[in-house]
């Protein structure tokens, strides 16, 4: 590539009938070759950075929600972090929907945090958005806080039935990860 440019001496700079100088052609050829060389170098890097099938498999979690009773939650693991999957009762859904989103620190409706047709299934990370403790409320008998959802005992953050921050230092709602229903009863997270 560099040789090509080096051979472009003033002798080779000629003007053809259509006005394109020979020197222009050599410069373009040199740039094109450099571009191809650049691609050849970049491609292996990109392919090395792409996750392997093993990593992709480990990065998603499947959960069968059929056995979760209304008012119950299960703890799973997603990308090595706790994941809460909860089936809300009609009362918990009503409580979430009765809260004006405009009054919330991190305004989001329950509908925005669940999937259409599955408003009773709330999927959130079990990681407090303050400093990362695992909130209580997913297991039977655990404290659910003043708003009936989750309570982080580390510094007292209270989340409501939609996992939205209502009181305490946490800045945002419990994160809802990317997920989809792969059947009526199974979700795939990630
Ligand atoms: S880590 Fe949850 S309130 Fe601080």
TrEMBL record:
It catalyses: a quinol + 2 Fe(III)-[cytochrome c](out) = a quinone + 2 Fe(II)-[cytochrome c](out) + 2 H(+)(out). GO terms for cellular component: plasma membrane. Residues 90-188 form the Rieske domain. Binds 1 [2Fe-2S] cluster per subunit. Its cofactor is [2Fe-2S] cluster. The keyword Transmembrane helix applies. It is a single-pass membrane protein. It comes from the Bacteria. The keyword Lipid biosynthesis does not apply. It is an enzyme of class 7 (translocase). GO terms for molecular function: 2 iron, 2 sulfur cluster binding; metal ion binding; quinol-cytochrome-c reductase activity. The chain crosses the membrane at residues 25-46. Its EC number is 7.1.1.8. InterPro entries: Rieske_2Fe-2S, Rieske_2Fe-2S_sf, Rieske_Fe-S_prot, Rieske_Fe-S_prot_C, TAT_signal, Ubiq_cytC_Rdtase_Fe-S_su_TAT, Ubiquinol_cyt_c_Rdtase_Fe-S-su. Belongs to the Rieske iron-sulfur protein family. The main subunits of complex b-c1 are: cytochrome b, cytochrome c1 and the Rieske protein. This is Ubiquinol-cytochrome c reductase iron-sulfur subunit. The lineage of its organism: Bacteria, Pseudomonadati, Pseudomonadota, Alphaproteobacteria, Sphingomonadales.
């Amino acid at each position: 590539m560099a040789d090509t440019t080096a051979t472009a001496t003033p002798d080779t700079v000629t003007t053809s009938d259509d006005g394109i100088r020979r020197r222009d052609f050599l410069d373009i050829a040199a740039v094109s070759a450099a571009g191809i060389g650049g691609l050849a170098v970049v491609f292996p890097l990109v392919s090395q950075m792409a996750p392997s099938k093993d990593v992709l498999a480990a990065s998603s979690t499947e959960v069968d929600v059929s056995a979760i009773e209304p008012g119950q939650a299960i703890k799973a693991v997603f990308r090595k972090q706790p994941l809460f999957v909860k089936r809300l009762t009609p009362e918990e859904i009503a409580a979430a929907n009765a809260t004006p989103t405009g009054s919330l620190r991190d305004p989001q409706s329950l509908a925005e945090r669940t999937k259409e047709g599955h408003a009773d299934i709330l999927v959130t990370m079990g990681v407090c958005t303050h400093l990362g403790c695992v909130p209580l409320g997913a297991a039977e008998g655990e404290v659910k806080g003043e708003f009936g959802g989750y309570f982080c005992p580390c510094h007292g953050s209270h989340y409501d039935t939609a996992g939205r921050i209502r009181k305490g230092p946490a800045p945002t709602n419990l994160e809802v990860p990317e997920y989809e229903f792969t059947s009526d009863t199974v979700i795939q997270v990630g």
